[in-house]
Write a structure and sequence with these properties.
single chain; alpha+beta; Beta-Lactamase; Arc Repressor Mutant, subunit A; 5-stranded antiparallel β-sheet; 9 helices; 61% helix; globular; disordered C terminus
Length: 241
């Protein structure tokens, strides 16, 4: 396994940072960041960010349905590498979920989904931990030292942005941000259900379809999801005689 070239990674990091300056919501920003992480790290099966408000974790910016599944396992069990990265403020690396003893319940469940390794980096806004960024892989010990440095670099950029969003206004602004994140997540889930019914496909296939079509059309995932729901509404509306 060879390290990624810094010359190849730099433009991707720059692209992500440029998007941060232009995007208006936390959801859009972390989606861009997660996509950049997956692009920059060749063996990454998926990437995403967990944000924690109080002690309530929420997955945002997930590049794949498998990321959400692995995250939700941590939230249900109340432990796992991403939650530990956030709570302890240190990076965590699960080299192989089939042999890991740090988070045995989560690792055993993650292994059944096809995830064999995971690297998580805390998001620190000053002394405050606001979440964690993570990458998952289908192979054991998939991430090189260079890969880990790339994720740490991207996570620092994310923490600056998200820390500003969380610290620049009142607690109501923070609450509204998370409400919007949850609204977008529900919108995407509804659109996924429409695609499953329309094409007779499974949940993962439907989510990948949404991701692929959004990328092809050059729009955000939730933007494409809205167009799917609008089209579905028009289809169900009776026409006048």
């Amino acid at each position: 396994m060879t390290d990624s070239s810094p010359n190849e990674i730099a433009p991707i990091i720059g692209r992500a940072q440029g998007l941060f300056l232009s995007e208006q919501t936390a959801q859009q920003a972390v989606s861009a960041l997660a996509a950049a992480a997956k692009d920059a790290i060749p063996h990454a099966l998926g990437a995403g960010v967990s944000l924690i408000e109080g002690h309530q974790p929420t997955s945002v910016g997930a590049t794949d349905a498998l990321v959400l599944e692995a995250d939700n396992l941590q939230y249900e069990l109340r432990n796992g590498p991403c939650l530990s990265a956030w709570s302890e403020g240190i990076a965590t690396y699960v080299e192989d979920t089939e042999t890991d003893q740090h988070w045995p319940l989560w690792s055993a469940s993650a292994a059944k989904t096809g995830i064999r390794s995971c690297f998580s980096v805390p998001l620190q806004a000053g002394p405050q931990g606001i979440g964690a960024m993570k990458i998952y892989a289908a192979a054991p010990d998939a991430f090189t030292v260079q890969d880990q440095k790339v994720l740490a670099h991207l996570a620092r950029s994310a923490a600056v942005l998200l820390g500003h969003i969380q610290g620049s206004d009142t607690p109501q602004r923070i609450s509204d941000t998370f409400k919007e994140t949850l609204r977008i997540r529900d919108l995407i889930a509804t659109a996924r259900g429409v695609i499953m019914e329309r094409h007779g496909i499974e949940e993962d296939e439907a989510f990948n379809y949404l991701l692929s079509e959004a990328g092809n059309k050059g729009v955000s995932l939730h933007g494409f999801a809205k167009s799917v729901l609008r089209a579905d509404t028009r289809k169900d509306t009776p026409t006048e005689a």
